[in-house]
Design a protein that fits this description.
mainly alpha, 326 residues, ABC transporter involved in vitamin B12 uptake, BtuC, two-stranded antiparallel ribbon, 13 helices
Length: 326
């Protein structure tokens, strides 16, 4: 018991120290890097939701971008209709996406493998058409999600992008700390048992359907939080902000991070943020056409996914651990 408490305290201190480092770094980099930092925080939460779902409970989702959209729309509606504070908008995003996840999880409990992946993929494909059917969702133009200017007490030189970064970084740190504790609890152990030995887990008295639904619900809640962070950083939420390519990018980020561990989640997040900049640099250096410029980031994501599956299927962190054990 004392060891567990010491471990929890150590992780909490680690997250606090990381937060302090991010605070100081944000004051010494330019606006572009600050904005990219907010995007990294969003991807950390989004990729973590996939790692929980796939790596811990064994369920595959290829349409997680749809759950991000649910969270983004939920946050924007609460903000626009009730002028709620940003933290309440994020809470609404989590709850609404978790509700969708519970409904989808009830279906997922009856499916497995490619059938589940196909179901989530169909949801992501049909998202734009669904959103356009409801006027209160803003149609193709979507909704504005304006969290307002940073507090005046932070100074006149405190930029909007830095405000986005602080909110996103703090949210990601809290979410990751909570998720790590959850995965180390009996729920995490149950999900791992269901993933690795479902028959043995059922014989041990574990309700497989209930366990899968709970995993899908928690994963969807985290995805909804990531969707709210994304909508905040671009100040809008629309079908075009959550394309199918986003779902594939998140799946790639999870593979790059290591689907079975949270230890490398920052690797996948930083990679996804860096890809557009790398692609832009390459296209400018070779003078590529507009068609190449538009498609190169997606091509790079696909290539990275193939390379990761071939050479580091468990992610670089797990690969390093296996080498150290050997």
């Amino acid at each position: 018991m004392h060891k567990v408490k010491a471990s929890n305290l150590t992780r909490l201190i680690g997250f606090v120290l990381l937060g302090l480092v991010l605070f100081f770094v944000s004051n010494r980099v330019d606006e572009l890097r600050v904005y990219q930092g907010a995007s990294v925080a969003m991807y950390v939460v989004a990729i973590s939701s996939i790692i929980l779902l796939t790596g811990y409970s064994g369920q595959v989702s290829l349409g997680h971008g749809a759950l991000l959209a649910v969270g983004g729309y939920g946050a924007a509606l609460v903000r626009n209709e009730f002028n709620a504070p940003v933290w309440l908008c994020f809470a609404a995003a989590v709850l609404l996406a978790a509700l969708w996840g519970a409904l989808l999880g009830a279906t997922a409990a009856r499916l497995s493998g490619p059938y589940l992946a196909g179901t989530t993929l169909a949801l992501a494909v049909g998202l734009p058409s669904i959103a356009n059917q409801f006027k209160f969702l803003g149609g193709e133009q979507g909704l504005i999600f304006d969290i307002g200017l940073p507090p005046a007490s932070l100074g006149e030189f405190f930029s909007q992008y830095k405000w986005f970064f602080w909110i996103a970084a703090l949210t990601a740190l809290i979410a990751m700390w909570w998720l790590q504790n959850l995965l180390r609890s009996r729920y995490g152990r149950t999900w791992r048992a269901v993933r690795s030995q479902s028959v043995a887990a059922e014989l041990a008295g574990i309700n497989l359907a209930r366990s899968k639904i709970l995993a899908f619900t928690v994963s969807a809640g985290l995805a909804g939080l990531a969707g709210a962070l994304l909508s905040m950083s671009i100040s809008t939420v629309s079908p075009g902000a959550f394309p199918l390519s986003l779902s594939f990018a998140l799946a790639t980020g999870a593979v790059l991070s290591g689907v079975t561990t949270l230890g490398g989640v920052i690797i996948g997040a930083v990679t996804l943020v860096a890809i557009p900049e790398v692609a832009d640099t390459l296209t400018q250096s070779i003078g590529a056409s507009e068609n190449v410029i538009a498609n190169l980031p997606g091509l790079m994501v696909s290539g990275l996914l193939i390379v990761a599956v071939l050479f580091v299927p468990n992610g670089p962190v797990e690969q390093l651990k296996h080498r150290q054990k050997r």
